[in-house]
Amino acid sequence: MKHLVLALDTMGGDFGPRVIVPASLEALDLCPRLVCLLVGNPSMIRSVLKKFNSKYINRLTIIPSKSVISDNDRPSQAIRVSKDTSMRIALELIKSGNAQACVSAGNTGALMGLSKLVLKPINGIDRPALTTFLPHQNKGKTVILDLGANIACSGSMLVQFAIMGTVLSEQIVGIGNPKVALLNIGSEESKGLDNIRQASKILHTISSIRYIGYIEANDLLAGKTDVIVCDGFIGNITLKTMEGVIRVVLSVFQKSEEKNTIYCYVIEHIKHWFSKIFFKKFIQLNPDRYNGAYLVGLHNTVIKSHGGANQHAFTKAIIQAVHSVERRIPEKIADRLSQMLSYQNNYY
Amino acid sequence: MKHLVLALDTMGGDFGPRVIVPASLEALDLCPRLVCLLVGNPSMIRSVLKKFNSKYINRLTIIPSKSVISDNDRPSQAIRVSKDTSMRIALELIKSGNAQACVSAGNTGALMGLSKLVLKPINGIDRPALTTFLPHQNKGKTVILDLGANIACSGSMLVQFAIMGTVLSEQIVGIGNPKVALLNIGSEESKGLDNIRQASKILHTISSIRYIGYIEANDLLAGKTDVIVCDGFIGNITLKTMEGVIRVVLSVFQKSEEKNTIYCYVIEHIKHWFSKIFFKKFIQLNPDRYNGAYLVGLHNTVIKSHGGANQHAFTKAIIQAVHSVERRIPEKIADRLSQMLSYQNNYY
């Protein structure tokens, strides 16, 4: 059985090795092919590993790093002095051929900048984008990008996101000729910000993209489109707004302030039973379940985990990376893009 | 009993007089002091009124208008040729002293521009903002603005919104020394767009504002702050994202694809019972219930209804206008602002 090697930035995110090391053990249990390179402070990693006494220790290697890029660091500055950081070393392991993908819960801007610097974007892409798959009401999935890698985007960057989103929808969700929409505050062409209107004009001229116009945020989960394109600021706000609302919804099922009577016991049971029906529909909107956003537009797989991810959530992000390598997603995006670009010169 | 006179733009929104005329009858039933001036196409209004044969007809006056500003019109263009439109005439009725407030479900940009032109902003305010009150997890309410009146905002505009939000939280929600936060994609000072960082710097220097820094979108409903400030594009996207998620949540309780067996009958009853518990918590996040956003920063009350509002939702918007007039909200904002400004010269 051929190994699949992932480099994990164990120092990134709110909890570092405390969460990421046990998550790697959980992932090793789930994927027999997986080998993990744990990049970080060796003594911190070892002290967590000791607690677990895992049988998968032979599929783990500790790669020492000296420093960490914190969430407070300005990406441009952090990248300049990134040489000995866990994030940089994890990415360099891909470049040197020692790992096939990387997972990090660290500083989003730095991860995006370093990935671009170390791994290089695919031909035709200026800047990689963060993307995920939103479950929608019609039981399918919508590709949404960018989720925060690029705070301010030009019209042509949004067009590139539309192309990458199309490829992801085709290759991962399995949609033939997927519909693409730009997120905006109205459906009329005159609405919104300049970059969105500019992207709309260009997209209307690209025959290989099935552009359907603007979509409003109240239709994000309605399944009206297969790909939703927005800048990283809007994407991040939108996803976190959903997360906040879903957390409030889930809290209804989790909390109980009632006293312990037989009546309450029955109610708790009905709540539990109902929450099962509910979860069936919302399982993938629960942030613990959908954790792991693809950084697309690079020659290799880089997965960004939520900074506050717990163990199970980080495991999900590792599994995403495994799937991306197994399905050869970056290669497929590059192939499809080069086809599109050969038909579509001077499209932006 | 002294009358309270509202001018209603009956031609705005997706449904026009069909929804707005019955909504006015519903509001007249709820508020004995209310008198409505129905601005619009007289024959269309009369044909709807005929169907209802209401006993409140003596508290209604039809004010003829010749044209309508559509949602597709560019605000700047629409305003130039607005002379005979229902929206303009409704606002002029306030200016001439014939009405105390206006409610419209029409083009947001045009309503904002025309209100500014006809009614003038309060001293110290460059541009009015759309605002509403979000219920939060700690059973209070958060003032959020702007929701779409100003798509692009400078740092100093965001500061003005922070001041207006503070006054609204004090005067309407009843919070003493309310906390104010800027919506951003991280909590660190270096995060986000230039205008947000600039506003943050200014807000730190204003002692009469209790500025607590950035808030992320997953905490919108967490009750961590009393006022949330953002530009109109972000505000609109955020509110509509919430609306979309809530609609999906509510659909779980409303739809049933099961067949009609005794088992399903029992399930439907439990769903109904559970939805009651659920609604109790979420009633104010249901778009039909929270309809009606204040356009604040003007000398008079202007309420913007959701374009797709149904009858009950539009009635809610009328009731908002009644409350604003009764509580003298615009006057209180102006008073508080002039106090703040006299202490705080050159703050932006």
TrEMBL record, chains A, B:
<keyword id="KW-0012">Acyltransferase</keyword>
<comment type="similarity">
    <text>Belongs to the PlsX family.</text>
</comment>
<comment type="function">
    <text>Catalyzes the reversible formation of acyl-phosphate (acyl-PO(4)) from acyl-[acyl-carrier-protein] (acyl-ACP). This enzyme utilizes acyl-ACP as fatty acyl donor, but not acyl-CoA.</text>
</comment>
<protein>
    <recommendedName>
        <fullName>Phosphate acyltransferase</fullName>
        <ecNumber>2.3.1.274</ecNumber>
    </recommendedName>
</protein>
<dbReference type="Pfam" id="PF02504">
    <property type="entry name" value="FA_synthesis"/>
</dbReference>
<dbReference type="InterPro" id="IPR003664">
    <property type="entry name" value="FA_synthesis"/>
</dbReference>
<keyword id="KW-0443">Lipid metabolism</keyword>
<keyword id="KW-0963">Cytoplasm</keyword>
<dbReference type="InterPro" id="IPR012281">
    <property type="entry name" value="Phospholipid_synth_PlsX-like"/>
</dbReference>
<dbReference type="GO" id="GO:0005737">
    <property type="term" value="C:cytoplasm"/>
</dbReference>
<keyword id="KW-0808">Transferase</keyword>
<keyword id="KW-1208">Phospholipid metabolism</keyword>
<dbReference type="GO" id="GO:0008654">
    <property type="term" value="P:phospholipid biosynthetic process"/>
</dbReference>
<dbReference type="GO" id="GO:0043811">
    <property type="term" value="F:phosphate:acyl-[acyl carrier protein] acyltransferase activity"/>
</dbReference>
<keyword id="KW-0444">Lipid biosynthesis</keyword>
<dbReference type="GO" id="GO:0006633">
    <property type="term" value="P:fatty acid biosynthetic process"/>
</dbReference>
<keyword id="KW-0594">Phospholipid biosynthesis</keyword>
<comment type="pathway">
    <text>Lipid metabolism; phospholipid metabolism.</text>
</comment>
<comment type="subunit">
    <text>Homodimer. Probably interacts with PlsY.</text>
</comment>
